[in-house]
Amino acid sequence: IRVDGRDLRCKVVGEGGNLGLTQRGRIEYALQGGRINTDAIDNAGGVHSSDREVNIKIPLNALMLGGELDEPRRNTLLAEMTDAVSGAVLTDNYLQSQAVSLLERDAALRLDEHANLIRNLERDGLLDRAVEYLPDEEGIAERRNSNRGLTRPELSVLMSYSKMSLYENLLLGKLPDDPWFERDLLAYFPMRLRERYPKALASHRLRREIIATVLTNEVTNRMGMAFCRRMAEELGVPREMAAAAYVVATEVFDAKSLWQAIEALDNKMPADRQYRAHARVSGLVKHGVLWALMQGRNADSIASAIERYQAGRIELEAALPDVLPASYRQEWEVARKSDCEAGIPEALSTRLANTRVLGSLPDIVELSHATKQAFTTVCDAYFQVGEKFSMPWLLASIIALRAEGRWQALARATLRDDAYRLHRNLTERILMHAKRGSPALEQWLSSHEAQAHFACQRIAEIQATDTRDFQALTIVLRELRKLCLLS
Question: Rounded to whole angstroms, how far apart are CA atoms 236 and 239?
Answer without folding.
Answer: 9
